[in-house]
């Protein structure tokens, strides 16, 4: 009995990305009901040198995608960062969910000691699989998920922590 | 080879609470240099019906403390929610770190299927240990850590994501 690398990664990404998608739907409804331009949210940020909402959602997806691919020893799929609407951000989440669902659990199991290389040049980092997942990817993944949520709350979108946690 | 319940919990809490503590030190320096009253941060929130900074830090500590105790089958230590300064919040983090360090890894190992009861009355929830840790505690724990960070960034404290991730 123990936690497998698959259990600690893909189902967690699925829970949180599904909840992020549901939050985007609520955000669409909120904006439509008030005739607010989506750009007001897409370009919102909590401080001038922090990433805007669109980028936060893109990066949350990228940590799920990158981690799943690297743990499985696959090339990381490249998504263009060109989303310009909530619908397009939902499509990116859907693409991410489709990719991570396509990776067989068996290719991730046993990746605890796999060598993981991230970044390049001066920003290159090396990890073992378990360290990469628990101490690097999950903090970053949750950071961008929570910051996306925080930007929406700060802008008055009516969502709550239940929406953030989602269903599992 | 696999991830143990201990590895997926206590060392993660230690990383993130140590980084939160270091962030509080930077916040103290930031406020002192500018002669800003700590209350401006302690009572700051991102939206009127969200918790203020002090409460965010308290809850982050409580998820680490509660999870560690419950997985180990121990009574959850009760901390009064009476912190009124950054120094006192740092003391709460220190108390939390001392408690979770005092719990032997062996008492948490093997808790994947342990029955966990949280809350009471209508808010009572039941989990198995692994589900509780991966799908409930960690999302909540990271939520309050990130929201604490977001409140500081929103108020101009000069910290970055490296401070949030910390050392591991």
Write the layout of secondary structure elements.
2 copies of one chain form a homodimer.
Chain A lengths: L9 H24 L5 H4 L10 H20 L13 H17 L2 H4 L6 E4 L6 E4 H26 L6 H5 L3
Antiparallel strand pairs in A: 1-2
Description:
Two copies of one chain form a homodimer. In chain A, helix 1 (10-33) runs antiparallel to helix 3 and helix 3 (53-72) packs antiparallel against helix 6 (129-154). Chain A has helices at residues 10-33, 39-42, 53-72, 86-102, 105-108, 129-154, 161-165; strands at residues 115-118, 125-128. Chain A has 168 residues and is mainly alpha-helical. A two-stranded antiparallel ribbon of chain A has the order 1-2. The two termini of chain A are 20 Å apart. Chain A is built from seven helices and two strands; from the N terminus they run αααααββαα. In chain A, a hairpin with a 6-residue loop joins strand 1 (115-118) and strand 2 (125-128). At the A-B interface, helix 1, helix 6 and helix 7 of A face helix 1, helix 6 and helix 7 of B.
Whole-number average pLDDT of chain A?
97
Helix run count of chain A: 7
Largest interface chains and counts: A-B, 38 and 38 residues
**End-to-end separation of chain A:** 20 Å
Query: What class would the helix/strand composition of chain A place it in?
Result: mainly alpha
Q: Catalogue the unreliable spans of chain A.
A: none
Q: What amount of the residues of chain A lies in strands?
A: under 5%
Shape of chain A: globular
Largest sheet of chain A: 2 strands, antiparallel
Number of strands of chain A: 2
Query: What would you call the quaternary organization?
Result: homodimer
